[in-house]
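Exercise 7 asks you to align residues with tokens for two separate proteins.
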Amino acid sequence: MSYTSSYYHIVFRTYRSEQTIPVEHDRELYAYIYGIARNLRCQTYRIGGMPDHVHVFVSLPPDLPIASFVQRIKTDSSKWLKSNPNFPYFQGWAREYAGISKSANEKETVIKYIMQQKEHHRKVTFAEEYRAFLEENGIAIDERYFLRDD
């Protein structure tokens, strides 16, 4: 038997960072993403976000690369959102995403962070949060492409 542990804090945004996820319906989206993850045999610890972006904290099975997971989440949820009348302005997801590996010891910290998104964003924009998220995790930012959709 093999033993693996792969926790990821994943962040992705709407196309052009448009505010197309109404707060009154965001839990519908999170439940849908949870279902996709469950069908992929993932353990989801928390999903949350704002009208322009989503955070997912998940543990992936050893045979599922993070890129494949994110592609399925974004593709399947995009189709669902575009057909759902509760999300009339949703146009799609931005191309890029951030996926940061985390340790089991960080689980509670990440869960709490995602739970506090609405409070957090009273003081910090998504661009500021995303930049800090990348920098804190040692990811170099190429300004030519940072938060660009064209």
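Second protein for Exercise 7:
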Amino acid sequence: MIAKEILAQVRRIEIRTGKLVTETFGGQYLSVFKGRGMEFAEVREYSPGDDIRTLDWNVTARSGRPHVRRYQEERELTAVLACDMSGSQFFGSGPKLKQEVAAEIGAILAFAAMRNNDKVGLFLFTEEAELFIPPKKGRRHVLAPIRDLLAFRPAKKGTRIGPCLDTLNRLLRRRSIVFLLSDFQDEGYEKTLRRTARKHDVVPILVEDKREVELPELGAWLELEDPETSERLLVNAYSGWARRALEEKAAIRRGRLEQTLASAGISAIRLRTDEPYVDPIVRFFHERAKRRR
């Protein structure tokens, strides 16, 4: 995709998602994420009525008098789009690839953050970290991650969520909202995801395609290729056994992800390339707002 086409596509996404942000997501983003973090302000002497849980024992021991740590609500948040760019993201059985859907979702979230004067950053990964754009403010900066979501061509094809999240944790020096966009076709990342969720506000966004969970009803043989390993397999699409095997494999992967999210105390936004994505995002915001209240 040449630069001119990329810029035109970014502009179309900005126009299309800008209205959604203004009318639907902007206020909900504010109600769900604003003020969730607390940042250190100062240490002062203890006063009657202060919460003893805020005692700073180090300063208290040095001074011989009780001191407490005071915190204030963070007025500026940092949002990071952590996007899986592995081979499976460049698959789609309909008009859009999973990667294109992820780019539009990323644009919505980036513009919502920009609208609330928050910083926005980008982290692209495959089996290794491929690109990191440090969080900054401003429309011009926000357009860069959206452009890279559309135009970036990764060096690798595989997926290793765990090591890449470890890299992101080292890069982010302050608590952030991490929107993790992936199809989660990986294993062994569970501990790292839980560790990341303790450090940051992690929002997993699962993007799937219907052909990853069900075969088309065709009385024919299909040659399937794994986009990450290039392994090929000949499958009878009319075979009930083949259809059940694919469905069972997808169910196992989904169940494993559900267990991981539950153990980390987080919930995911689930999207499909052949279905509108507005309603699932709205439901997620509503549910988060209810839990916060």
